[in-house]
């Protein structure tokens, strides 16, 4: 079903709003992917905070005009699904993980920090730990000396308690 002019303007405005918030956009060709699999992909994307949508390429080209993602316009051809995320690696992770399990979904391009990425670039971006993972690792590193000190003090107190009891 084709969209009338007002519907197209609404879609462009909605996508432009997502583009304004996004740090990363990832494009993937979905030809041959079953509807049930796309539904699962959408659920995974929603969980990760990724705006995932199948859109007309011409509408997305209009939405990215004048943004750091404008370089992606050359890559927009064929049946594409678009992933937009505020987290720099979330969209790449979601689509890359799905592509590993489903060979019908083919990563085509992406954009991060104003740079257009090819398939290998998107996969490299997907391999970077997410912000939450990095914060958890940092917290673990910061807690290690304190918890080690606490264990040593507890062991020392237990040892002193044994010698006084004897």
Secondary-structure element sequence? HEHEHEHEEHH
Radius of gyration: 23 Å
CATH class of the largest domain: Alpha Beta
- Strand adjacency order, main sheet: 2-3-1-4-5
CATH topology of the largest domain: Alpha-Beta Plaits
Looking at CATH, the homologous superfamily of the largest domain is: Ribosomal protein L10, N-terminal RNA-binding domain
Spatial shape: elongated
> Which sheet architecture does the biggest sheet show?
5 strands, antiparallel
Low-confidence stretches: none
Total of helices: 6
Structural class: alpha+beta
Strand content bin: 15-25%
Measured distance between first and last alpha carbons: 88 Å
Task: Count the E strands.
Answer: 5
CATH second-level architecture of the largest domain: 2-Layer Sandwich
Helix content: 55-70%
Number of spatially distinct domains: 2
What is the overall pLDDT average? Answer: 86
Structure, described:
Belongs to the universal ribosomal protein uL10 family. The chain has helices at about 5-20, 35-45, 55-65, 90-100, 120-125, 130-165; strands at about 25-30, 50-55, 80-85, 105-110, 115. The protein has about 170 residues and is α+β, with helices and mostly antiparallel strands. The chain folds into two domains: about 5-130, Alpha-Beta Plaits; about 130-165. The protein has a five-stranded antiparallel beta sheet, with helices on both faces.
């Amino acid at each position: 079903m084709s969209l009338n002019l007002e519907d197209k303007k609404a879609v462009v405005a909605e996508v432009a709003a997502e583009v304004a918030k996004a740090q990363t956009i990832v494009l993937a060709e979905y030809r041959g992917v079953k509807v049930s699999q796309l539904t699962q992909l959408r659920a995974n994307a929603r969980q990760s905070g990724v705006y995932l949508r199948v859109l007309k390429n011409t509408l997305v080209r209009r939405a990215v005009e004048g943004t750091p993602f404008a370089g992606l316009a050359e890559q927009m051809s064929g049946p594409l699904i678009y992933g937009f995320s505020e987290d720099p690696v979330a969209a790449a992770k979601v689509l890359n993980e799905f592509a590993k399990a489903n060979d019908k979904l083919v990563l085509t391009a992406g954009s991060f920090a104003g740079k257009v990425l090819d398939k290998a670039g998107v996969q490299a971006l997907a391999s970077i730990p997410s912000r939450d993972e990095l914060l958890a690792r940092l917290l673990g590193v910061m807690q290690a000396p304190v918890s080690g000190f606490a264990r040593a003090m507890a062991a020392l107190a237990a040892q002193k308690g044994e010698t006084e009891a004897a």
